[in-house]
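Summary of Year 1 activities. Much of the first year was spent building the evaluation harness for sequence design. The harness presents a backbone, in tokenized form, and records the residue chosen at every position. We chose the following record to illustrate the format because it has been used consistently in internal testing since the harness was completed.
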């Protein structure tokens, strides 16, 4: 069994020195990767820039931008049995990256932003015999928004968590299926949550049959 995991933030550059990103630490994705390895499966980790060392034994791919994460994941996914998408991918990027460094002028500036490509939705379109587990970090209309993401991105399940999980050692999550029902819930350290999640996948998703 070979499982793809995405982790950490992505960065979208305004100019050659400044970028838009978020405070994701990557801890959840890295803990999931370690739990997969501990369970005896192959783990393929695609990570944005974080301060964590990749778990020993994982196949590791470092990326920075959303486009890079998209390209690497699309190349790897057909050779995996499933994906756990825990990365906090930037939703927007500047319409145009400025060469060099934007200088102060003493006046306000405005930026035109466009949506980034949706990595998880792209993998959902590639799905054949794979299974897909996404993450939804929501602050308003939590369950409704998470369920919309699950359906829009062709996920089998989605983990609902909240903004207080960002850069935290702990997490409290609910696992939703396509009906919107909570089929599992876990709380504690991210290591504990990751172990419980992988244990659930072993019982409900992970087959001993190789991916075709």
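For this record, the design step produced the sequence shown next.
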């Amino acid at each position: 069994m070979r499982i793809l995991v995405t982790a950490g933030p992505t960065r979208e550059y305004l100019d050659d020195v400044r970028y838009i990103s978020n405070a994701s630490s990557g801890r959840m994705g890295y803990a999931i990767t370690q739990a997969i390895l501990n369970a005896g499966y192959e783990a393929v980790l695609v990570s944005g820039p974080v301060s964590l060392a990749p778990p020993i034994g994982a196949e590791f791919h470092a990326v920075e931008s959303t486009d890079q994460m998209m390209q690497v994941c699309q190349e790897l996914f057909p050779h995996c049995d499933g994906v756990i998408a825990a990365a906090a991918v930037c939703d927007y990027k500047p319409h145009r990256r400025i060469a060099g460094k934007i200088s102060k002028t003493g006046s306000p500036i405005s930026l035109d932003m466009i949506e980034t490509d949706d990595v998880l939705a792209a993998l959902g379109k590639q799905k054949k015999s794979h299974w897909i587990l996404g993450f939804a970090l929501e602050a308003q209309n939590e369950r409704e928004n998470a369920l919309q993401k699950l359906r829009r991105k062709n996920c089998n399940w989605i983990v609902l968590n909240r903004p207080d999980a960002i850069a935290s050692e702990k997490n409290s999550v609910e696992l939703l299926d396509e009906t919107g029902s909570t089929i599992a819930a876990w709380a504690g350290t991210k290591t504990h949550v990751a172990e419980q999640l992988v244990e659930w996948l072993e019982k409900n998703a992970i087959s001993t049959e190789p991916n075709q």
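The two ends are 11 Å apart (CA to CA). Quantitative recovery figures across the full test set are reported in Table 2.
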